[in-house]
Amino acid sequence: MAEVEFRDVTRRYAGDVVALNGLNLTVSDGEFLILVGPSGCGKSTALRLLAGLDKPTTGEIRIGGAVVNNLAPGQRDIAMVFQNYALYPHMSVYRNLAYGLRQRRTPRAEIERRVRETADLLQISELLDRKPGQLSGGQRQRVAMGRALVRKPQAFLLDEPLSNLDAKLRNQVRGDLKRLHRELPVTSIYVTHDQVEAMTLGDRLCVMSGGEVQQIGTTDDIYNRPANTFVAAFMGSPPMNLIPAEIRSGILHIGSAAVTTVPSPDGPVIVGARPEHLQLHSRYADGMVPARVDFVEPLGSHVLVTAVVDVRDDAAAGATAEARVIVQAPAGTELESGARIGLALPAERTYFFDSETGVAGCHRERISL
Amino acid sequence: MTTTQLPHTETSAPQTQPERRRLRLRLPFSPWHLVLIPLAFILLVPLLWMLVTSLETEGEANRFPPVLIPERPRFENYSEAWAAAPFGHFFLNSALVTLVVLASNLVICSLAGYAFARIRFLGRGALFVTLMATLMVPFQVTMIPVFLIVKWFGDNIWAGLGIDHIGALMLPNLATAFGIFFLRQFFQTVPVELEEAARVDGTSRLGVLVKIVLPLSLPALSTLAALTVLTSWNDFLWPLIVITSQDQMTVPLGLSYFQGAHRVNWPLLMAANVMSLLPMLLVFIGAQRYFVQSVASTGLKG
Amino acid sequence: MPEDVAARRPLALLRRVGRTENVAGWALVSPGVVLIGVFGLLPVLMSLQLSFQQSDLLTPQTPWVGLENYRKLADDPVFLEAIKHTIIYTALFVPGTMLVGLFVAAAMNRSVRFISVYRTAAYITMAVSTISQGIIFLWLTDRDYGLVNAALNAAGIPSQPFLASPSQALYVIVAMTIWGWTGFSVIVYLAALQGVPAELHEAAAIDGASAFTRFRTITVPLLGPANLFLLVWLTINALQLFDEVYATTRGGPLRATTVIVYYLWDRAFVQFDAGYAAAMAYALFVVILVITAVQFRIARRYGHMS
């Protein structure tokens, strides 16, 4: 049983810096869980606490049901792949792979067998006699993975293992990782700031920000049912558009335009819609959001139009407020900068968030005017 | 480091599961202090003992087992030591020599280092290698001929540069191959684009060095300065060879003569020693960063 | 204008630029070159010449004696003894300083409060002049009133003559110079230790290695470059030992601490036998070169330079 559990784990530093605040997370046996978020969100802290490289201020960490708070990293039966690989530069690849097994007094024949087996799996068998300094970045990455795999640990910890690879290699290794996990389903906890990696690799994602969990769920959950504005804006590229609006007398108003009826209480609200769900109309009509084209970016398969929406509230005296909105349009769309267009909110994919807390509100079923 | 407690964590929450009980000392500070304090103390004992003795009377010093704390700190030892030998001259000479050698090295090694780093001139490679070869030659090989050369300068050009004058202490050290090597290494790391931009604007080669490169090289210059000051001030063998008159002596040499004259008056000798050591100790503490950097960088590259 | 046309032609332009570059280069380099040439290169040649002559540094007459000085050197019992003393000194001083330096650096390689104060205490021996060192240790090891003998007595060991004893003096100088060079050694090792990325220790910890095993299998092997540097630097300095001997024993008692450079200095500037001394200096020079080359060769063979 190699379930990993964080129970109310907090890590506070001197000076009231809270790196991790009350993390509650259970990773099931064999699951590939991704901790994703911007730098400083606490994901690396959580990983290091799990590894035993740091001690939590409060809370319990369990591996396979046993509390490991007071166990040294070497006693937790976990393996870690570091961002910079941390390969022992003075040892050959073989000895790098064998190091952990030797510390556990594994018999030499067994070490030989497992090292060769792992090397075959990762296709680094020809490199066993070389030193890390003689390897390319991609090869080093595989050796780092091998060093973790050969130990057959209860849990794998991966700390941004792809961030030092170039784009092409990254895509390839991502695929390798997915295949590897399918063949050897070890409980894995993977840290990254790259949302593409997170969405493609993870069984489940844990989105974090400022030391706190924002949402835990599958890619589908996170993408289609974001729990708050942070998750909505963080995942997806280009990110979800978040437009400040107001509901008056049951009607959604964006700027001065009355858009649609909404079964929500009156008051300020944040409306969310993804670029690929908004519909762009070259001529404004009632029920749409009026906008003015800023610039157009052709991407080959489609076009991204950045437009400006007036969100000023006529009722309150105040300065002009504008929101930038990105909408996806079919390839070949040509628009002049400054042209007036209309944006239609999608029927099922419009999100409402509390304007103060950012928490997701009810999910619109259908829009009508 | 699993059995020691990490120094900055807050106390962890009580564990709910029984586990192997390990002896854990709850100290308000890291247990390493218990190792580091005695270690630092042992390293400093010679200096501390020197200080203690310098404040004792002769009677107290000549007692066995030794007196660890004098009855009354005898500061008069210092004024007596100062009066017993021309320390004023010693310090002045050391200061003069060090200052001149420092200024000269900074200027000349900068010029040469820059030329070697950035100017492609005929014979540059061979010249550099030859200069660096001199670093391999120990001082003992050159000291006798340099003595003769300096004597020649003294007899033929200006007595102030010759035997038994502080000029002779300055002359051979006005430029060092190490200084040129060190600054050349550093200048090579200054982005060429900055210099090229200045030259496009019309600055001369020398102007580029003075206005662009040198201001960016302050760390390297400070490091070279720190090393030069220390080696120059503490130099002993060369002054021993060249200087015989007390009024031309530098501090180490003067101290050595003081030792010869007051061999048995330990408190007096220690007071003189403290006075002699103090300037360099202060310089070292103040510029510690540069000393550490200079040694560490040569050590890691070598 | 014919002049412009000529200037624009690439070859002529290159020649012009080349000329100014040469002028500029040599102009900037010349003060340094002249000084080092006069006081660095010229003496090397003069010394060689001197070693084939007989000179007393005062009279201008310096008759040529060929290899006589070198022959005398090989038969000189004092010189041979000096070699023995120098070798013993070097063999003890170099490993001693490295070990002490490594030990202290390992202790200082952590970030507790006041660590900079502790490190300063370790480094500061670097700033102490050799004469000061000698005076302090003469006093510390004084037979009748020294602190060391007081400590020994307290432990039940009788007082030792130390620097006054022909059999002990050299070893006391070894201890004294180790103390003096500890600061330097600590700086080098501390920098090397800090150069070991923390991640390597973390990876080793996760792999199950204890703190001591990590030190032995990860840290120490990565100290290769630092070890080599210290080995070479300390050996070169050990072979040139002079100041500390002058400050304490003046080569005695009974020549027990006469090392090569002390004898050299004595011959050149006290006995005024400069030609002979120059030959000795050259012999020392060759020895230093050979030992350094051997050390580099051995290091490369064992390939600990990662």
Briefly say what this structure is:
The complex is a heterotrimer of chains A (369), B (302) and C (306). Chain A is an alpha+beta fold and 369 residues long. Chain A is built from eight helices and 21 strands.
Give structural notes.
The complex is a heterotrimer of chains A (369), B (302) and C (306). In chain A, 23% of the residues lie in helices and 35% in strands. Chain A is α+β, with helices and mostly antiparallel strands and 369 residues long. In chain A, helix 2 packs across helix 3 (108-122) and helix 3 packs across helix 4. With 302 residues, chain B is an all-alpha fold. Chain B is globular. With 306 residues, chain C is mostly helical. Chain C has two domains: 2-51; 70-302, MetI-like fold. Chain C has helices at 2-8, 10-51, 68-75, 77-108, 115-123, 130-140, 147-154, 169-195, 198-206, 211-219, 224-239, 243-248, 260-270, 274-302. The longest helix of chain C has 42 residues, at 10-51. Chain C is flat, with a radius of gyration of 26 Å. The model of chain C has no long low-confidence stretch (mean pLDDT 87). Chains B and C meet through helix 1, helix 4, helix 5, helix 6 and helix 10 of B and helix 2, helix 4, helix 5, helix 6 and helix 7 of C.
Describe the secondary structure blueprint for this structure:
The complex is a heterotrimer of chains A (369), B (302) and C (306).
Chain A: E1 4-13, E2 17-27, E3 32-36, H1 43-51, E4 58-63, E5 66-67, E6 78-81, H2 93-103, H3 108-122, H4 137-149, E7 155-159, H5 167-183, E8 187-192, H6 195-201, E9 204-209, E10 212-217, H7 219-224, H8 229-234, E11 241-248, E12 251-254, E13 257-261, E14 267-273, E15 279-281, E16 289-298, E17 302-310, E18 322-330, E19 340-344, E20 351-354, E21 360-363
Parallel strand pairs in A: 3-8, 3-9, 6-7, 7-8
Antiparallel strand pairs in A: 1-2, 1-4, 4-5, 9-10, 11-12, 11-14, 12-13, 14-20, 15-19, 16-17, 16-19, 17-18, 20-21
Helix pairs in contact in A: 2-3, 2-4, 3-4
Chain B: H1 33-54, H2 58-61, H3 76-84, H4 87-118, H5 124-133, H6 139-156, H7 167-170, H8 177-187, H9 192-200, H10 205-216, H11 218-234, H12 237-242, H13 251-261, H14 266-286, H15 288-301
Chain C: H1 2-8, H2 10-51, H3 68-75, H4 77-108, H5 115-123, H6 130-140, H7 147-154, H8 169-195, H9 198-206, H10 211-219, H11 224-239, H12 243-248, H13 260-270, H14 274-302
Helix pairs in contact in C: 2-14, 3-14, 4-8, 4-11, 8-11, 9-10, 11-14, 13-14
